[in-house]
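[[Sequence with tokens]]
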Amino acid sequence: MLHHMTLSTVKRDEMRDITREIIALTKDSSIQNGTVLIYCPHTTAGIAINENADPDVKRDVLMRLDEVYPWEHPKYRHAEGNTASHLKSITCGPSQQIIISDGKLLLGRWQGIYFCEFDGPRSREYYVKIMQG
């Protein structure tokens, strides 16, 4: 079962919690045991799993990514001027896979699933593949 999802981001860098959407798709699939793959087809965005209880974690992650990959650097050569967003995307990664057991995602107590925007605001898409197994 493949789902094409869309969202609009509002900031240059943001981590959008998509956990509820993934849980709903998993529940609607009626698959009791298998996996969910969440995939982002963009070179300046990604998918992450991390804490979703304290919003300061997202703030801290984005702050440190900005420090490690500053938006402007005298040695960047990419003509579009968004090298930092590509580096952040590589660090984050394009996908996450989660086990489904007894119809539920095996996420840890504090874990959430994030669409990570690094070059917004933009209209974005991602895919969710739910697999029996």
Observations:
- The helical segments are 19-29, 55-68, 83-92.
- The CA atoms of residues 9 and 121 lie 5 Å apart.
